């Protein structure tokens, strides 16, 4: 399970959240730098900004998975390695049914 391995090497949810916010700032910075420094159309700067901006959701997702693992590692293990996703979906479905 990747979340367990990340946790074991010292990566915490706060690190993933910082990386997500950092990638948002870096996205703006790459867009601005590309727009000012390159002799290229604006669309090229937009593509750079979008490329880096796509990293943020991945880091936020990892942060959520790590936070859930940090709260209850045994629950994440029981859910088959998906950070409790399957168990959460079952609980949500049960609430919807009732």
Q: Looking at the structure, what is the overall shape?
A: elongated
What is the number of beta strands? 0
Based on secondary structure, the structural category is mainly alpha
What radius of gyration results from the CA coordinates?
18 Å
Compressed to H and E, one letter per element, the order equals HHHHHH
Integer tally of domains: 1
Strand content: under 5%
Report mean pLDDT, rounded to a whole number: 81
Question: What is the rounded distance between the termini?
Answer: 32 Å
Main beta-sheet strand count, sense and barrel state? none
Uncertain segments are none
- Secondary structure: helix percent: over 70%
Count of helices? 6
Description:
With 98 residues, the chain is mainly α. The chain has one domain. Helix content is 82%, strand content 0%. The protein has six helices and no strands. α1 (2-8) packs across α4 (55-71) and α2 packs antiparallel against α3 (42-53). The two termini are 32 Å apart. 14% of the residues are buried. Residues 87-98 have a biased composition (Basic and acidic residues).
